[in-house]
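RECORD TYPE: protein structure
NAME: Protein-glutamate O-methyltransferase CheR
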Amino acid sequence: METNVINDEQVEILLSDLLEQYGYDFTGYSRASLKRRIVRLYGLDKALSFAEFRYKINNDHTYFKRFVEQITVNVTEMFRDPVFFKTLREEVLPKLGTYPFIRIWLAGCSTGEEAYSISIILKELNLLHKSLIYATDLNPTVLEKAAQSMFAMSQMKQYSENYILSGGKKDFSSYYTANYSLAKFNEDLKSKIIFSTHNLVSDYSFNEFQLILCRNVLIYFDRELQFKVLNLFDESLEELGYLALGTKETINFSQIAGKYKRLQTEKIWRKVE
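PREDICTED:
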């Protein structure tokens, strides 16, 4: 599909519509990746014209939800980057285990695989009973899927391998029940997860956390919006709390950089003021 089907000016019109109609602010997102995904959807749905495409987004709420789902990136898996989860298991969470209660914010949780991964590690460290994971995303459709705690059985072999590489010692299948083509994860894992919509661009801090994870979300934002979101995380993080980002993301060059010390491995920083 040629990227000139929708031009840069039309992308700006759509972003302006989203802000005015729905309060969704995508203006700080990287234009190249946004445009690529908008053009892909335009081609997939065989819109007759840009005007028709725009009209559907603005007037058909079901289609608007599809549009947001398609232009936000929802690529995730359980225990993705196992070494990162091993670091959480061995270095970060045991330190937080000394707290009377652990509040974790997983920002940009997508369909929930990461939330259940953290819940499993907390359970194995005997910390789940005194923890709460706030798993948030801009996209209500992916949150609905996450709350069902069901994932494709075809993924379980990969997830089990990731789990073992991340330091897991149990039989991974003990955490779910096979239900035809789906794996339904145990209720006790979900009981400590709160799934909720939160827009990193426009919403405020809503609690004080000991651990904030936001992996592979900031790469889709421009520099100014990245700094704004990092400040939001800083406001939301307790002293000596941890901030975890994706492999290509950093707090370097931001206003908050001086308050944090990076762990030797992985993109995890501790707030030391």
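COMMENT: Residues 40 and 119 are 35 Å apart (CA to CA).
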